[in-house]
Write a structure and sequence with these properties.
The complex is a heterodimer of chains A (261) and B (316). In chain A, α2 packs parallel to α5 and α3 runs antiparallel to α7. Chain A is an all-alpha fold and 261 residues long. Chain A is built from eleven helices and no strands. Chain B folds into two domains: 227 residues, 3-Layer(aba) Sandwich (Rossmann fold), CATH 3.40.50.300; 61 residues, Alpha-Beta Plaits. In chain B, 34% of the residues lie in helices and 31% in strands. In chain B, a hairpin with a 2-residue loop joins β9 and β10. In chain B, the strands form three sheets. In chain B, strands 6-7-8-3-9-10 form a six-stranded mixed β-sheet, sandwiched between helices. Chain B has a four-stranded antiparallel β-sheet with strand order 2-1-4-5, covered by helices on one side. A four-stranded antiparallel β-sheet of chain B has the order 12-13-11-14. Classes of the chains: A mainly alpha (261), B alpha/beta (316). Chains A and B meet through α1 and α4 of A and α2, β6, α3 and α5 of B. The complex binds adenosine-5'-triphosphate (ATP) and magnesium ion. The site of adenosine-5'-triphosphate has 13 residues of chain B, from β1 and α1.
Chain lengths: 261, 316
């Protein structure tokens, strides 16, 4: 357990020194600044843009980090040969994977918190001039949380792919899975329209096996001033935990057998 | 004497070829034992299988067959690995960390307390002469400096056994001497050192016992004195002040005579011919500059294709 924490800590430090977070910090500042400008215009409509745009940006940039850093997380260690000295130490291969996963998870958490604070701040600034609804502000927090869970799931997918394929292929596969997974709500409907039995079952198979990212998406819902039901939050959390755990178990199983030539 | 490393019939095949990968043997039935407290040299030319063996021992790779034990435990025992250290070949470490941070990270992995880590880091940085670069990022390290930090990280946990894959590579002459001193002092502390190299002089001055690997086969194994057969060594004698008309006398006795700017280089097949040459040098008013062994029997192990009779007799 201690080992996992130590590795996670170092992975976090790596991403901080990679200056990944600074780009995002910059973006959060930009968001706040632009809201000030919009605030000057004092249009009541515009303030609804902030939650929607903010959360979307949070998902998009978080997704980029999750996919690009997630797929390189372990690959880079092998490619740069930093893994040799480490795995000879009393570190189980499973602990190594988990440490890497939680380290990037921590990076994403910080990133989400910064972005969310930016969104809340700019929303507050806008609402100061107009009369914003406090309900939306509160609803932004669970929506941000669900985005964070979604990012963790994406990291786990990237990690699994990178445990047996090249980074370029892993990135491509992760993006494809993400896109299909985001559309997967429509897959059963789509399946009904397919005349060929095989493709129909393929669509259904994909629906059941691929992670369903639309489950996590409450951006529009929240931007309209709705609060996410607690029940939904719990169900989606459970879903994310189970799915992520399964992916990590598979990744570790593959990693255990690997030869580092 | 306690055996601390036990290698038993280790084989490793690499799969080579893209379409139809075929197994290619890199290590063939390697068996050897290393005793507690000795400096054990693992010799072999390029591609002999030294790194392969070490990676298997460090569980970075799995053997095709065979097994190994360290400190009486299976090699994948995590508790056992708290008691060993490993310096990889041409090491590379997290380049975004400073030397100090990296050693601190390693110390944390071993569960050392804050105090213990700080003390150990300072000791080690001094030991490998890197205190001047303690706060420099590893990406700004030279090759030799990386090698030094590699040695330091292998010693963080004060290990009982230290495995080193070519510890002297990339080091300047002073660095090599310092590493020799480090290895010697480790033995004085009762530690066991297992290191690979293809540099004979390092083995000659350091090792208690050696194993010699040739293309994956164990070609020799045992005490250096038993292996070496010092009488067989070719000797080179440098001489000055011999005039040209006397040259033929030397050519008759020697294996080879080379004229250089500073005088003559006379090669003789072994030590038993030294006296004859010395007599000749006196007779023709020459001056001896130096006498050196050129090709020791150890080097022959690298060069010869077949297992020599010497090797067989040296097998323990
Ligand atoms: N990843 C690999 N894939 C295929 N063959 C390999 C691989 N690594 C090593 N080999 C082969 O295994 C043999 C032993 O290699 P190894 O790296 O163990 O040699 P070495 O003794 O460490 O040599 P050096 O002194 O050059 O470091 C060589 O024939 C090499 O070609
Ligand atoms: Mg090697």
């Amino acid at each position: 357990m201690n080992t996992i924490l130590v590795i996670a800590q170092n992975t976090f430090r790596e991403s901080v020194r990679d200056k990944v977070l600074y780009n995002l910090l910059f973006f959060a500042v930009l968001l706040v600044a632009s809201s000030l400008i919009i605030g000057e215009l004092s249009l009541n409509q515009e303030k609804l843009i902030i939650p929607r745009m903010g959360l979307s940006v949070m998902l998009f940039f978080g997704g980029l980090i999750a996919i690009f850093i997630g797929t390189g997380l372990v690959y880079k260690e092998i490619d740069k040969r930093t893994i040799y000295a480490m795995l000879a130490k009393p570190i189980g291969r499973g602990e190594f994977i988990l440490g890497k996963f939680f380290g990037l998870g921590l990076t994403l958490l910080v990133n989400c918190l910064v972005m969310l604070s930016g969104i809340l701040l700019s929303y507050a600034i806008l609402s100061y001039n107009t009369d914003g609804s406090v309900a939306i502000a509160w609803a932004l927090i669970p929506a941000g949380y669900l985005i964070f869970l979604q990012l963790l799931l994406i990291v786990a997918i990237g990690l699994l792919f990178s445990s047996f394929s090249s980074p370029a292929l892993s990135i491509t596969l992760s993006i494809i899975i993400y896109i299909i997974g985001s559309l997967s709500k429509d897959l059963p409907v789509f399946a009904q329209t397919i005349p060929f039995i095989i493709t129909k079952y393929l669509a259904l198979f994909l629906y059941y096996i691929l992670p369903n990212f639309s489950n996590f998406n409450y951006i529009t819902y929240v931007a309209q001033g709705n609060m996410i039901p607690l029940n939904d939050i719990l169900t989606v959390t459970l879903y994310a935990v189970i799915y992520t755990t399964l992916l990590l178990v598979a990744t570790i199983a593959i990693f255990q057998k690997r030869n580092f030539k | 004497m306690k055996t601390v490393i036990e290698i038993d019939n280790l084989c490793k095949d690499y799969m080579v070829g893209f379409w139809r990968p075929k197994p290619q043997r890199a290590l063939n039935n390697l068996s050897l034992q290393v005793n507690e407290g000795e400096i054990f040299g693992f010799l072999g030319g390029n591609g002999a299988g030294k790194t392969t063996t070490l990676k298997i021992l460090m569980t970075l790779m799995f053997p095709t067959s065979g097994s190994a034990k360290i400190l009486g435990k299976s090699i994948d025992d995590l508790e056992m690995r708290k008691q060993i250290g490993y310096l990889p070949e041409a090491p590379y470490f997290y380049d975004y960390l400073t030397a100090k941070e990296f050693l601190d990270y390693c110390g944390k992995i071993f569960g050392l307390s804050n105090d213990a880590r700080n003390r150990r880091i300072n000791e080690l940085l001094k030991l490998v002469d890197l205190d001047f670069a303690a706060d420099r990022q590893l990406r700004k390290f030279s090759k030799g400096m990386l090698q030094r930090i590699g040695i330091a990280q292998a010693l963080v946990n004060d290990p009982k056994i230290v495995f080193m894959d070519e510890p002297m590579s990339g080091l300047d002459p002073i660095g090599r001497r310092e590493v020799r001193e480090i290895i010697r002092s480790l033995r004085e502390q009762g530690k066991t050192i297992f290191f690979s190299t293809h540099i004979l002089s390092d083995v000659e001055v350091l090792c208690d016992r050696v194993a010699i690997l040739r293309k994956g086969d164990l070609a020799g194994y045992g005490k250096l004195s038993e292996l070496e057969g010092s009488r067989d060594a070719t000797m080179e004698i440098s001489v000055q002040g011999i005039s040209n008309e006397n040259l033929p006398h030397f050519c008759a006795k020697a294996q080879k005579v080379v004229q250089t700017a500073s005088g003559l280089q006379i090669q003789i097949p072994d030590q038993s011919h030294i006296d004859e040459i010395l007599l000749l040098v006196r007779k023709y008013d020459g001056k001896i500059i130096s006498i050196n062994p050129v090709k020791t029997a150890l080097e022959d192990f690298f060069v010869k294709e077949k297992t020599s009779s010497l090797t067989k007799q040296a097998l323990v």
